[in-house]
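thoughts on my protein:
***
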Amino acid sequence: MISCKRDLFSLPRDQHYLNCAYMSPLSKRVESAGLEGIRRKVVPADITTDDFFKGPDAVRRLFARLIGVSDPERIAIVPSVSYGISTFAKNTMVSQGQNVVTLLDQFPSHVYPWRRLCRETGAKLKVVIPTSPGPERAENWNSALLEAIDADTAVVAVPNVHWTDGTRFDLEAVAARARDVGAALIVDGTQSVGAMPFDVSRIQPDGVVCAAYKWLGGPYSIGAMYCGPRYDDGVPLEEGWLARTGSDDFSRLVDYQDEYRGGAVRYDVGEVSNFILIPMFRAALEQLAEWGVDNVASYCRQLTGQLIVDLLEAGFSVTDERWRCGHMFGFRVPSGYDQAALRERLRAEKVSVALRGNAIRVAPHLYNDEGDIEVLRQSLALP
């Protein structure tokens, strides 16, 4: 079992930051990489042609390895989830009478591009809602999702972990159903990749997008996306010169090339070589590779295990363990509970959790320890 890594971060001891699902703090290693990137830009003569490519390509390799992809060229570097999802929406054929399947209260970046596509094509946005409250809520929600995918479904656009309360969806079953009807499966992995195992070779999604600033431990305004064979010949959102063949020869950039570099590189954001964000993202992925995703998942699950038991005994509602991820969970308060008073206690004790939907979300990481959980317990007045 991996140990607490609080010493690798600069979090104040009196801050009980249990909110990685909001954004991760930067480790000292990632912070150092960013500062070094700033210093390099001070003397730009030291930035070579190779530097425009080797940083992004290192990120591709690291992210590909993280999600079980053998070919790093299937990874594009994007500035946000909305950018990646918009790229997929632009390159997915949807017709009037078809539908796009999403989930209730899904994160907006994975909804707005599909809403626009449905408006433009006359397709229907089909939002799957939980069919019952209580302990069976997550299982019934999974069943409802599978039932919603029908012969008219063009796209299944879902996360594998719901951002409000950590409800887990069975992506292998969803992917199999999507393949049966010929639908594209597009996954927002932002709240799962890096904190729980994710294997593209097993799930076989058509696309996956992840922001870097949460469970990957990276900076804001950068992320990565996997593009399956369905999107091999798509049209990018922007026509970046670095995405073209021969772009490594700066003396011939005006010999314009219509051909893109291999794989998903065509979908890279412009100025993908960002000499500050790319080194930070790379450092974060290297750190995560050293820790191991399985270790992160096990540590978080063990840290919150007894807390969840105590919440249930005190009358709070928590998703059943079978359908709950290990690194974050949401709990719902009993009837009559004074949530306003709870928020004040959390603020006074400097406990960072999140109110998302009607759930209070707890999302620890390796920088948290039993002391953080104990302060949360005291704020909740648990026995």
